[in-house]
Amino acid sequence: MASPSSTAAAAAAHRHCRLLALPLFLLVPSCLALLAEAGGIPTTLDGPFPPATRAFDRTLRQGSDDVPLTDPRLAPRVQPPAPEQIALAASADAGSLWVSWVTGRAQVGSNLTPLDPASVRSEVWYGEHSAAAGDTASYPQVATGSAEVYSQLYPYPGLLNYTSGVIHHVRLRGLRPATRYYYRCGDSSLPGGLSDERSFTTLPAAGAGSYPRRVAVVGDLGLTGNSTATVDHLAQNDPSLVLMVGDMTYANQYLTTGGKGATCFSCSFPDAPIRESYQPRWDGWGRFMEPITSKIPLMVIEGNHEIEPQGNGGEVTFVSYLARFAVPSKESGSNTKFYYSFNAGGIHFVMLGAYVDYNHTGAQYSWLERDLQMVDRQVTPWVVAAWHPPWYNSYSSHYQEFECMRQEMEDLLYRNHIDIVFAGHVHAYERMNRVFNYTLDPCAPVYINIGDGGNIEKIDIDHADDPGKCPSPGDNHPEFGGICHMNFTSGPAKGKFCWDRQPEWSAYRESSFGHGILEVVNSTYALWTWHRNQDAYGENSVGDQIYIVRQPDKCPLQPTSASSLNCPTGGCPSPMSTSSSGAHLAITSGQLFWKVLVIMSVVLICTVEATRIPMFPGLILQR
Ligand SMILES: [Fe+2]
């Protein structure tokens, strides 16, 4: 998506800027603020918007069945020792990248013999030129990594144990940014041990003038007919990075609600104190995603469906998530896969864990504080955060479920001017007006809930403000942390747990499956588009679209006390820029040329208009 076209922008500015008797120094900024309206796409500068709801389309089904593991998209397509479930993940910067895959066959049953991860090598052969099949010598580089297996064990009658194939993770280093590479992964010492050749293009280097082409955002995906529609639609939009905000496979639901399995788990397995998670769904999901994930990085964060308790009493959790995904945790100083950060061009992504300690006295908070302190907004003007359960949500489902996390962490994010927050968990779409502490605030993040990927639990359609749909404060217990449900202290919902209308902080909500695409244009503008699945093959329409506009001049960063950061000897890294012009200084020369051209056009148009109409005091806006 190109930046707002100069011609259309000038026309839009002309339409809106017939301001009479307004000093030119006020007129020009006002006109510029409206430039992005070209094409009729609103900007956050036009907000806050009146709350809007698009009613659920009753002609659509609320959900669909799980895709069976025998489906060709989920079944094994290669024979061991060939790699499968190949997936990429971003690393510390554009110069490195993680490659993961699985070899061997997983086992399900009562007598399992885990595979030996040391029995097969973890190699990635790669270079900037394609090589003939079997010709590893043509690749100038080879990187090696590590391998592991994991088991999901249930010491209860009737439940199936599982042990995985060998899961490999290799980090490539020394890559050139924004460059196409070709690779094969596997074990070159084994006949048939290497994959077919695949390719990827590295992310752009961190910088205010370079951004990933398109970032796809999806949540609560699962593996149903709706999930496959979402992924097909997402692939059509040709993203260069995928952000997945938790609840990936719903393997833990498969034997309960999926695939026509047991409708009542506790009825079918009365002696099992914990729910079985059917791990082969993870392998099917990895195969299904491989056409995308072997080409572009998939960045994940854990959701509640990744908890998957096992063992005696369920004391062991998150084993599959931790084993299967490579994430840049060590690279970003977190030392846990439950939260981490990375850069993609001029965007700093912060992935937070809602199912680990989020208290302001805890390790995650300290890490986040330090991570944000190290962000240089002149290099990565945009800071985008993501985690699984939303803080702002007006649906009945999961309403106020993670209030404790919000109360612990929101101030830190606000002070550091996080630009956008993505969450899932609620199976519907909702975009908020800029909001902080339930109060509209032009300097607060734009919160977007995108948990409408299409999983087996169906779409959420009830709103907490619908008659009779306000959950009781005892509902919606979080699967981690405490309960901090609260009544509002001001506004139309003062003294109440739920509003009696769509809250003012909820800008737009709709119960449809889909995914989103974020296209950052420059250090100021980013286009967000929500694509509904039912629009995929219809007219060129979108479910929701808005330019998210940064205003660093109006929303200066508030310094964080260096003493609280335990800075190492030698001092802390440079704090974030508070310069209002810093981001603009980094605009590329090409962008600068067009910007100057547009500014001059706007000034000329508005000056001509002003001279054609008699001057008089006051501001009169002619529309
Ligand atoms: Fe969830």
From TrEMBL:
Identification of the protein by name: Purple acid phosphatase
Organism expressing this protein natively: Digitaria exilis
Domain Calcineurin-like phosphoesterase: residue ranges: 214-429
Family affiliation: Belongs to the metallophosphoesterase superfamily. Purple acid phosphatase family.
EC numbers on record: 3.1.3.2
Lineage: Eukaryota, Viridiplantae, Streptophyta, Embryophyta, Tracheophyta
Catalytic activity entry: a phosphate monoester + H2O = an alcohol + phosphate
Domain Purple acid phosphatase N-terminal positions: 83-202
InterPro entries, sorted: Calcineurin-like_PHP, Metallo-depent_PP-like, MPP_PAP, PAPs-like, PAPs_C, PAPs_N, Purple_acid_Pase-like_N
CDD domains noted in UniProt: MPP_PAPs
Alphabetical list of SUPFAM superfamilies matching this protein: Metallo-dependent phosphatases, Purple acid phosphatase, N-terminal domain
Domain Purple acid phosphatase C-terminal: 497-544
Signal peptide: 1-38
Keywords of the record: Glycoprotein, Hydrolase, Signal
Alphabetized GO MF terms: acid phosphatase activity; metal ion binding
Domain of life of the source: Eukaryota
Pfam families membership: Metallophos, Metallophos_C, Pur_ac_phosph_N
